[in-house]
Write a structure and sequence with these properties.
Elements lengths: L3 H16 L4 E5 L4 H14 L3 E7 L7 H12 L3 E6 L1 H8 L5 H25 L7 E5 L4 H5 L18 H6 L3 E3 L7 H10 L4 H4 L19 H20 L8 E15 L2 E14 L7 E2 L4 H14 L3 E6 L13
Parallel strand pairs: 1-2, 1-4, 2-3, 4-5, 7-9
Antiparallel strand pairs: 6-7, 7-8
Bound molecules: xanthosine-5'-monophosphate.
Length: about 325
């Protein structure tokens, strides 16, 4: 009979057998549940022959790169390189407003940066042995449903987008989660000793804050949204509501609304808050916050985030709305 414990034992044995005694394994990590669980499982299977790469694309949540370093490298003992490619991504994104173009730019840059890093790791061979495998945290729903996300950045998740690595570097794919559903990945993560806070984390899209900044993406806009989002998520956690929500995030609108501060009129930006409940993200409903929680979030954002004077709450379901605004 199938248990998660027996899955772990069998999967670790399978990975060891598959990867052989010498080859090294690399894989991208994002701070999300799937890539972290896959990385931890790989570390259990091949130890230091696994090396994780995190690409900071400049549109991550506040302190994300730092937190991923603490979690993976310090807590879980995984070899990790964090590449700060934020300048490069933000330069490529400058002036871009169209959401599908944002996705394309981020997807393409990601592949370039990741490939360059993979090649660097492969060059430091010496006693370390050749890089032969690419870890992907593909889940069962991704396997059966080839188009689970709209937009080309989602192609990061599929096999074609790592085509360069697979072909040029002759890497082979290893996908330890390919038979699991999301709730099983969470259970697996817990058994592997990954903290609950990470295992329960809401999903975050590959194109990151770029698709939550509805206008042009600049460092300043990213910072405004990071601050608002950080306040929002901390207050959700403080109210004990995080695990009741499937996904929550702030969106930065490219309009200026009138406001008042002291005896002066202000023209500043608007933040929209989104929180949904959902089984599989194909349909979703807006989350019914207790009013006092929204009141506190709104007051903190307008007081603490310079450049924002108004907060709205999105009460659209999916369909007809989508979870993201872009
Ligand atoms: P929508 O907005 O389509 O979102 O209702 C459903 C789920 O998909 C995520 N999403 C993305 N994830 N790249 C991703 O990796 C993307 O381009 C993308 N677009 C949407 C969204 O966050 C939600 O969980």
């Amino acid at each position: 009979n199938w248990t998660m414990e027996s899955f772990i034992t069998k999967e670790i044995a399978r990975i060891r057998e598959l990867c052989g005694p010498k080859g090294r394994v690399i894989g991208a990590v994002s701070g999300g549940v799937d890539s972290t669980v896959a990385a931890k499982l790989m570390k259990e299977a091949v130890g230091d022959r696994f090396h994780a790469i995190m690409v900071d694309n400049g549109v991550l949540r506040m302190n994300e790169a730092k937190e991923v370093r603490e979690m993976l490298s310090e807590n879980l003992g995984i070899n990790l390189t964090v590449v700060d490619a934020s300048d490069r991504f933000l330069t490529k994104l400058s002036g871009v407003e169209d959401p599908e173009t944002k996705r394309k730019v981020i997807g393409n840059e990601f592949i370039h940066v990741f490939e360059a890093e993979a090649k660097k790791l492969a060059e430091e061979e010496g006693s370390k042995g050749p890089v032969e495998w690419l870890l992907q945290g593909t889940l069962y729903p991704d396997v059966i449903e080839s188009v689970s996300f709209r937009g080309p950045s989602a192609t990061i998740k599929t096999h074609h987008n790592v085509g360069g690595l697979l072909a040029d570097m002759k890497l082979k794919l290893v996908e330890p989660l390919r038979e699991l559903f999301k709730d099983e990945v969470r259970a697996l993560g817990r058994l592997l000793g990954i903290p609950d806070r990470l295992v329960q984390r809401h999903p975050f899209p590959g194109p990151g804050l770029a698709i939550r900044i509805l206008g042009v993406v600049t460092r300043e806009q990213v910072q405004i949204l990071q601050r608002a989002d950080d306040i929002y998520i901390s207050e959700i956690r403080a109210a004990g509501l995080y695990d009741q929500i499937a996904q929550a995030f702030a969106v930065l609108l490219p309009v200026r609304a009138v406001g008042v501060m002291g005896d002066k009129r202000t023209y500043e930006q608007v933040v929209a808050l989104r929180a949904v409940t959902s089984e599989d993200f194909m349909t979703a409903d807006w989350f019914a916050f207790p009013p006092d929680v929204l009141r506190k979030i709104s007051s903190r954002i307008t007081n603490e985030v310079k450049g924002v004077n108004r907060v709205t709450y999105d009460i659209s379901s999916k369909p007809p709305g989508t979870v993201e605004w872009l």
